[in-house]
Amino acid sequence: MTFSMDIIETDGNARTGVINTARGEIRTPAFMPVGTAATVKAMKPETVRETGADILLGNTYHLMLRPTAERIAKLGGLHKFMNWSRPILTDSGGFQVMSLAKLRKITEEGVSFQSHIDGSKHMLSPERSMEIQRLLGSNIVMAFDECTPYPASEKETEDSMLLSMRWAKRSYDAFHDGSEHAQMNALFGIVQGGVFEKLRHHSAEALKEIDFNGYAIGGLAVGEGQDVMFEVLDYTMPVMPKSKPRYLMGVGKPDDIVGAVERGIDMFDCVMPSRSGRTGQAFTRRGTINMKNSRHIDDPRTIDEQCRCSACSQYSRAYVSHLIRSGEILGPMLLTEHNLTYYQDLMAGLRDAISRKSLGGFVKDFHETRAEGDIAPIT
Amino acid sequence: MTFSMDIIETDGNARTGVINTARGEIRTPAFMPVGTAATVKAMKPETVRETGADILLGNTYHLMLRPTAERIAKLGGLHKFMNWSRPILTDSGGFQVMSLAKLRKITEEGVSFQSHIDGSKHMLSPERSMEIQRLLGSNIVMAFDECTPYPASEKETEDSMLLSMRWAKRSYDAFHDGSEHAQMNALFGIVQGGVFEKLRHHSAEALKEIDFNGYAIGGLAVGEGQDVMFEVLDYTMPVMPKSKPRYLMGVGKPDDIVGAVERGIDMFDCVMPSRSGRTGQAFTRRGTINMKNSRHIDDPRTIDEQCRCSACSQYSRAYVSHLIRSGEILGPMLLTEHNLTYYQDLMAGLRDAISRKSLGGFVKDFHETRAEGDIAPIT
Are B222 and B318 contained in the same domain? Predict the structure, then answer.
């Protein structure tokens, strides 16, 4: 087994380290850009790497429907297909089958559904999800779970969590099929239980019993708000194994990430930096700005004067604003690159602060700079 | 005056050389990618340069409406605005005001019209076109002319051509305003006259009388077909000055370019390689292929095995086909890069063949390879 985690330094509950995989190292805390359909939208993979990403996320649900996992396997796997040689984590399909597919039906066996693309009929189960993620050549495979709706009663949440735990065991058994893929790569379990401490604890204990290579927290960032999310982390993190990676799924905004790192999370993924890049939103050290706003159209300054990305080193706000207003593809290209660079630089800053045991000061600066707000328009 | 042309070698009517500008050299025959709204769509300028482009084309009509020439001037000019330091040729707006604007009215003074973007009212005249192209910082300014409709009678074509010749003189007078811009950069006249030899000769003589830095042929590639276009070139080229650049506007398909180079053309522009990249069409040495076609979805081979572009060196047809089918932005990014590389490699091949006085063999190979057709699908 080539998968392991070295924790290099801690500061309070936060930790920085390295996850070793068959495809290379992941520096933690790590942010994983989302490459839904075998591409981080509007980005070449070499540019994604230049932003500082060590690992990408791929989506089982999207890829199983188009171009299909079998086709990708025949073409040499997802890494080769999309020209990304470093680690890839794949989700299990559990979340997106609930949010995107049509005519879903959940049974003990799994989820049957129709494709949102062409209406074709499919089935996802722990066994099928493991098979797809193996065909893709995923380096970090996620157990198949049910995405608990939010809000949900304690009873609904418990039933859903217990189903996910049975599916977690089936995922484990299906993943460990004696294949080289299973020997070389990792399987993560997903702690569910909504906003109920007792259920989160039950879920974490059930997963530890099975023994995964890493542990994710699922079912957050679904509308519960940052306070509730941090509260769930506060009572869930103490029961998560310290020696293994901890991954907060689908999170989040920059301040969500900072707060979660303070609470001991190692890995994140979110569509926000890439999706925002396509809608004209830019993340900066002074907060989020809307490049569609007319205040930018004459501004010769860069989006974020401290940013090293090619958008900020070569273009003005006026130009990026022109591109976005004109619907030019280069607009999303530059803004996505900028936003992903912002996220990766935030992660690098967090890693550096933890390694110097100065996370408190870093977080204080982070919030103070954001509170200053965007630079004033040129008059 | 820093603008000049050195003809290095000829082969029949074809020539290869270098156009010297204030922003650097242009190797001829040259293909100019179209950067309509201050961007070659879906391309970073450094990638455009990597394809082999020495010069870009910018559109007066689009830029005057958004973000406006005055705004670009205030921000330091078009080169700085779009991060392209090499030569830029700007069209006069004459063609696009006729094809895109609403409620056009042509008078001796110029063309009044409404913006296709927001309906705002504008005027383009020789004087205003020269002012806009100066504000943009264009290195090769095009005289303002009327785009003669096609088909048109000889009388209509003559009236239109004569108006364009009066506007050419006004363009010349307005361009030569004693500014540093006029001293450092070039003004090209545009030969009109449709498909009538007598009118083309009249137009060319009228422009030579005024004395431009280069001469374009306008009003072709508007539906007349390749045979007619080549016929017009056959009788127009002999009356075009040999010592100055000759530019065939808006052309064209690869075989149009090859035939026009054989007839002595030095410069080309066309949206085809970039527009096709956004609709899934790929140019290859074996002809044009449609990446939406299902024959490509399992094909591990590259689009064109002889192509050096990053799409062809890093991705399969299967992947590019997946991107195009999925509507992913990376699809147009890769295909545009490929198509522009194909065009630039074609120009490099033509330049090399002329310099070795072996254009005939190059053209024969070019047609024979295309006649072979695309590689057979993998079965």
Answer: no
DSSP label at residue B35: -
- Going from the C-alpha of A302 to that of each of A23, A296, B76, B238, the distances in angstroms are 36, 10, 14, 51
Task: Name the minimum distance, in Å, from the CA of A292 to any CA of chain B.
Answer: 13
Cross-chain CB nearest to B83 (options A42, A76, A314): A314
The answer to whether B332 contacts A333, with C-beta atoms less than 8 Å apart, is: no
Q: Do A319 and B38 touch (CB under 8 A)?
A: yes
User: In CATH, what number is assigned to the domain containing residue B186?
Assistant: 3.20.20.105
Judge whether B358 lies within some domain. yes
Determine whether A269 is an active site residue: yes
Confidence band (pLDDT; 50, 70, 90) for B102?
confident
- Chain A residue numbers with beta carbons less than 8 Å from the beta carbon of B75 are 298, 300, 316, 318-319
Candidates B81, B300, B325; nearest CB to A66: B325
Give the whole-angstrom CA distance, residue B245 versus residue B29. 10
- Give the pLDDT means over successive 10-residue stretches in chain A (379 positions): 93 98 98 98 98 98 98 98 98 92 93 95 97 98 93 96 98 97 97 98 98 97 96 98 98 98 98 95 97 96 96 97 97 98 98 98 98 90
**Would you say residue B72 lies in a domain?**
yes
Specify whether A214 is located in the same domain as A111: yes
Whether residue A245 is preceded by a cis peptide bond, meaning omega within 30 degrees of 0, is no
Q: Residues of B with CB below 8 A from A314's CB?
A: 83
Which of B 218-247 lie inside 8 A of A, CB atoms?
Answer: none
Domain with B120 in it: 4-269
- CB of B379 less than 8 A from some CB of A: no
Let me know whether A362 and A314 are in one domain: yes
Q: Which residues of B touch A310 (CB under 8 A)?
A: 44
Last residue of some domain: A242, A269, A296? A269
Catalytic positions of B are 91, 269
ipTM: 0.97
Give the burial class of B293: count Cβ atoms within 10 A of its Cβ; 0-12 exposed, 13-18 middle, 19 or more buried.
Answer: middle
- Residue A379 falls inside a structural domain: no
Nearest CA-CA partner of A138 in A201, A193, A94, A81: A81
Which residues in B lie closer than 8 A to residue A329 (C-beta atoms)?
A: 41-42, 329, 332-333
**Domain-ending residue, one of A249, A269, A289:** A269
Regarding pTM above 0.95, the answer is yes
Both A285 and A190 in one domain: the answer is: no
Do B236 and B194 belong together in one domain?
yes
Q: Are strands B111-114 and B102-106 parallel, antiparallel or unpaired?
A: antiparallel
Pair (A256, A314) in one structural domain: no
Pairing of strands B121-124, B111-114: antiparallel
Number of domains in chain A: 2
Residues 39..78 of B with a Cβ closer than 8 Å to A: which? 39, 41-44, 66-67, 71, 74-76
Q: How many residues does chain A have?
A: 379
Contact across the interface for B319 and A43, Cβ inside 8 Å: no
The residue of A116, A315, A316, A326 whose CB has the most chain B CBs within 10 angstroms, and thus the best one to mutate to test that interface, is A326
Q: Verify that B145 and B198 share a domain, yes or no.
A: yes
Looking at the DSSP assignment, which residues form a beta bridge with residue A102? A114
Q: Please choose, from the candidates A200, A209, A60, the residue with its C-alpha nearest in 3D space to the C-alpha of residue A135.
A: A60
Position B38 in a domain: yes
B328 part of contact set with chain A, CB < 8 Å: yes
Distance from C-alpha of A276 to C-alpha of A339, rounded to nearest angstrom = 8
> Could you tell me the maximum CA-CA distance found in chain B, to the nearest angstrom?
67
Cβ-based neighbours of A113, under 8 Å, separated by 6 or more: A97, A101, A102, A103, A104, A105, A121, A122, A123, A124
Whether residue A57 sits in one domain with residue A28? yes
pLDDT in tens, B159-212: 999 999 999 999 999 999 999 999 999 999 999 999 999 999 999 999 999 999
